[in-house]
Specification:
This protein has one domain: Arc Repressor Mutant, subunit A (Orthogonal Bundle), CATH 1.10.10. The protein contains four helices and three strands. It has helices at residues 7-18, 33-40, 46-55, 82-89; strands spanning 25-27, 60-64, 67-71. The protein is α+β, with helices and mostly antiparallel strands. It is elongated.
């Protein structure tokens, strides 16, 4: 039997393999990632694993409707600071 992938290897492989053409990330739910993670890792929690990888800087996690988007760090879109944008628009 082949050796199992680590969480990091699995998540990075999923991001590259499951993303749709023209997109740099995957939706954790709609791509099937969460279900695949649970099946591969015997019902372990994908949220805990991806949050830990994000804290370590191995992936980028961005909240979106219905779940999160997962990105490789070098491919994640720049994050917007909505508070600063709002203050600028308000002239403050």
């Amino acid at each position: 039997m082949s050796e199992r992938l680590s969480y990091e290897e699995f998540v990075k492989k999923a991001i590259v393999s499951l993303r749709k053409e023209g997109y740099k990330g995957i939706h954790s739910v709609y791509s099937g990632f969460n279900s695949a993670f649970k099946k591969y890792f015997n019902d372990e929690n994908p949220v805990e694993a991806t949050n830990k990888l994000a804290q370590e800087g191995k992936i980028i996690v961005r909240p979106v409707k219905g779940g999160v988007m997962l990105y490789l760090p070098e491919e994640a879109p720049a994050s917007r600071n909505l508070a600063d944008e709002a203050l600028t628009k308000m002239g403050l």
